[in-house]
Amino acid sequence: MIFKNLFFKQKNGLKTHKNSPEIDETVQDLIDQLKKSDDFKEVTVKEGLKPLKFYYFHPLVDKKLVQNDILPYLQEESIHSLEDIKRSVPIENMEVTNDIATIQHQVLSGSCMVQIGEKSSEVILLRAVKNNHRDVNIPEVEFSVVGPKEAFIESLDVNLNLVRRRLPIPELRVEEITVGKITKTKIAILSIEGITNKENVNTLKQRINDIEIDSVIDSSYIVQLISDNQHSPFPQFIDTERPDRIAAVLGEGKVAFLVDGAPHGIIGPTTLVEFFSAFEDYFLNWLTASFFRLIRSFAVVFSILVTPIYVAVLTYHYEIIPKDLLGILVTSRREIPLPPILEAIFLELAIELLREAGARLPTKVGQTIGIVGGIVIGTASVEAGLTSNVLLIFVALAALASFTTPVYQIGNTIRLLRFPFLFMAHIWGLLGISICFCFVMSHLLRLSSLGRPYLEPIYPPRVQDLKDAFIRLPWSRQSKRPVEAQTQDTMRFNQKKAKKKKTEVDE
C-alpha cells in the first residue's frame, strides 16, 4: 500500500518531493484511510468535473465556525481554485500544501481539508479547532491564603498565556517539542534569554528529544523519563500548578516546561531544600516565613525518625529512657502481646490505608473515612491491647508532620523512607538508624537535577544560597540570583540603591 510505504519513508527520515508521482494517489489513499473512522466527515460542496470536497473530523472542529464562516463562502460561484478560497474565506491560518505528513497532522489536530478535483495533488487546510477546556481556577494542591489565586489548566495555550502575562518581556523564549508517536503531545520549554544558563536549556531539550515513547498523557511521564536518577525516591523536578511560581523561578534563571494536557508546570534544576519552601513564604514577612520553614524542616525529621527511635529504644536501649517516662511506657505496654516492631508496623500500615482510602474516594466521603476511621481504629486497637497509647500518639503526630510539606511529591518520599528506618531500628537499634541515615545521605550526595548538585547549598557549601534555604532573609539581602542555576546575569538589582530610603515630608 502506497500510504504505508510513504509512512515508512518519512519515519526513516526520507522526504517526498512535490513532483513525486506518488502524491496524487497518496492524498486519496490518506482520505480513504481516514474514512474508515465514522467521525471523519466528507461534504461535497460542488459537483462537476472538478468537485469541491470538504473533509474534517467533526469532534475536533468548531461546528459554528464551519457552518457560518467556511461552508457558505465555499459555495460561492467565484470559487474555482485554492487561491480563490484563500481570498474568499474570512478566517486565519490557511495553508496550501501537498505534503502528506502535514495534511495528516493538521486534519488530526482540528483543521478542515478542502480538495478541488479528486485527483488533485494539493489541498488547502483551514484551521477550525474546537477549544474545550475548563476555566482557570484556584490552586488546589498549592493553595495559599495570600497571593494570586490562578492555577494551570489542561490547555497549553492558556497556560502559556498565564505565564506571559506575568513576564511581558521579549526575552521570554518558548520552544515547542512534540513527543509521543501516538499522542503527538506538545511540550513547551520556557526560559529567559540573557538570564537562563543555556547549558540547562540544552540539557533539557536533549533529554526530551531523546525520549522514545508511544504516548505522553501527563507531565509526570516526561519527569520520570528525563530524571537524572529514575530509581531514586526523591523527586528531581518541582511539579507546580501555580503560574506565578513558574514566572518567579524563570526570573531566578531556572528553566521550566509545560505539557499540553497537563495542569502542572515542571521546574528544574532544583534542590532538596526547595521542596520544603512554600511559595506563600514569599508573600509573608521574612521572619514569619523563616519560622514556618524551620517548623517544616523539624516536622520532616520528626516524621521520619520518631517511630524508628521508639522501636529502637524499647528494643535495645531502655537505659536512655528517663525514670519518670519509663514507668509510663511500661504501663502502656503491660498488656501488649506484640513486639514494638509489629506494633509500629500495624499502626503505620493503618495510617497508610486511611490515607489511600481518603485520597481515592470522593472528597466528602474521603474526609469522613479519614476522621472516623482514624478515631475508630486507634481507639479499638488500644482497647484491644494490640498497640500502646504512647505509640499511637507518636504515629499520629508523625503522620500529621508529613502533611506539612508544601510539595506533594516529597511527602510521598517521606512516607516511603519511614519504613526502611523502622526495619533498621528493629535490627540494630540506634546504630541501624545511623546506618540508614548514612545510606540516604550518600545517595543524596550523588544525586543531581539536570546535572546540578541536589544537596546545594549544603553540599557543595554556598553561603549565598543559604539566604533563601532553611530561612528566608529580606529581599534587600537577596540581590543576586541563586548560584545553583549558574545564570548568565547573576544580579537581580543594585543592593546599595535598594537600601537607600528617602522620606519626603510636605511642610
UniProtKB/TrEMBL annotation:
Bias type Basic residues, positions: 494-507
UniProt keyword annotations, A-Z: Membrane, Transmembrane, Transmembrane helix
Family: Belongs to the GerABKA family.
One Pfam match: GerA
InterPro entries: Spore_Ger (IPR004995), UPF0353/GerABKA_families (IPR050768)
Region of interest (Disordered), ranges: 479-507
Membrane topology (UniProt): Multi-pass membrane protein
Segments passing through the bilayer: 294-316, 390-409, 421-445
Subcellular location: Cell membrane; Membrane
The species this protein was found in: Piscibacillus salipiscarius
Keyword flag Lipoprotein: no
Protein name: Spore germination protein
